[in-house]
Amino acid sequence: MRIVALIPILAAGSLFGQLPEVTWSAPVPVTDGTTGNRNPSIALTTGSVPVVMWGSFMGDIFVSRLQGGAFSAPVQINPADMSVFTADWAAPNVAAQGNNVFAAFKELPEDIGHVYLVKSTDGGLTFGDTVRVDNVGSDRTRFAAVAIRQDGNPVVAYMRFNNTWGESRYMLSYSNDGGNSFQPDVNATDQSPDEVCDCCQGFILSQDGREVLLYRGNDNNIRDAWLSWTEDFGSSFTAADIDESDWFLTSCPSSGPSGMIAGDTAIVTWMTRGSGGGKPRVIVGTVSLATMQVGFNLKRDSMSAVPNQNYPALAGSGDTIGLFWHEFVSGNVDVFMSYSIRGAAGLNDSVINVSDAPGGQNNIEAAYAGGVFHIVWQDNATQKVMYQTASFSGFSTVERVESGDVQIVPNPVSDKLEVIAPDVRRVTLLDASGRIVLNSTSSDMDVSQLPLGVYFVRVEMADGVAVRKMVKF
Q1: Residue 18's Cα: distance from chain center in Å?
Q2: Are residues 413 and 435 both part of a single domain?
C-alpha cells in the first residue's frame, strides 16, 4: 500500500533541504476576556477542528470550539457549586479523539476535593455530568491530566499523597466504559527513587496501546525529568531518569515536562537550571521506549543574553516537530516556537516569536495535524486566550513508502545495519546534529565504529524518501 505524504523540496547539496516557510493565520481571540484566560489547553476533533479549554481566576473552567472562523460561546464545564484548581503554572487539560472530548480537573479545596472527568460527544459544544475518577480514602490528590487510548477509553493521571501531604507519587486510573467509571488507580512512579516533585504537574500520552507518563522527580532535592510507561494497563511499568542536568533545588520548581511520541521514541521537553543552579533553560530529550536509552539532551538556544525560559510544550508527528515555550526578553514575556522537519535534533534550526506584542504572553500550547500547528496562548495584556495556526509552505507532494514498508534492522544496532525497503537507491546516515557520517548505495551498512547515540537513516527509493531513527548501542 502507498500513501501520498508531504516531503520538503530538497535544495541542491542539502540532505534535508531548506526549512519550509511558515504561513501564519491571523490571530483569533478564543475569549472576550470576561471568563479568564488561565493556562489554555487545545485538542483537535474531527476534521482538525480545535477545541480549547482554559481556567478563570474564580476557579471555573471553560471550553470553546472553532466554528466558521470564530469560536463558540464559552461553555462552563465544572458544576456551578464546584471550584476547580487552575493556575499560571499548572492547570487541567483536554484531549480529543474524533468528536469525543475529555477534560480532567481537580476539585478545590485540595485536601478534600477529588479528581473529575467530563465528556463531550459533539466536539466540545456540550458536556455531560462529572464523573469521579479517584477513590483514595483519606489520601489527598493534586493535578489531573487525561489521554485517550486507541479503543477510545480515557486514562487519567493525577498525583496522590497520604493524608499529611507526604509520599507523593503519580497514579494512573483507567476507564473501560468510555469514561463513565474508573478502575482503582495504579502507581506509575514506584520505580523512581524517593518521591515525585509535589508541585510539578505531569503529562500523559497514549499511543499504540502504550501509556507514557512524564513527570519530575524529587530524589533528595534532585529535580530531574522522568519517564515511565506501561502497555498492560499499569500491571507493570518501565521507568528511567531522562534528564542529565541533576538539578538540585530545595524549593519548588513548579514546572513539569511535556512531550510527544514518534514511533518507538519519546520526545520530551522540560525546564532546568542545571546542576550549577544557572538560569532557567528549556531542554529537549529523546528516549528509546524499546531500550530506555536516552538519545540526547538538547539545550534550546536563548533569545536573551541572560536565559529565562519556561513551560515548554511539544506538538508534531514523526520528524515534524514544533517546540513552544515562553521566555523573558527585554523585560517582556513572549511566547516562542521552534520547528524542525528532521526530528528533535533540528529544534535549534529556527525560532519564531509567536506573539511579539506588549503586555506579556505565556502558557503556549499546540496541537498538530495535516501539516498545521494549532496554537493557543495566554495574552495577559487583553486577558484573552489567543489562537493562531502555522502551516508549512514550500512543500510538494511526493509518493512516499508507508512506514511499515521501510524497516531498519536491527534497531538498536551495534555493528551491521540492514535497510529493508523496495528498490533502495541510497542510504545516508546522519548524527543527531544532522551531519552526514556514512553514505552507501547498498542496503547494508557497517556502523560498528560509530559512537553510541541516536542517528537518522535517510532512505532514498525509486518512488520516494523515508527518514528513520536508529539507536547505536
Answers
A1: 25
A2: yes
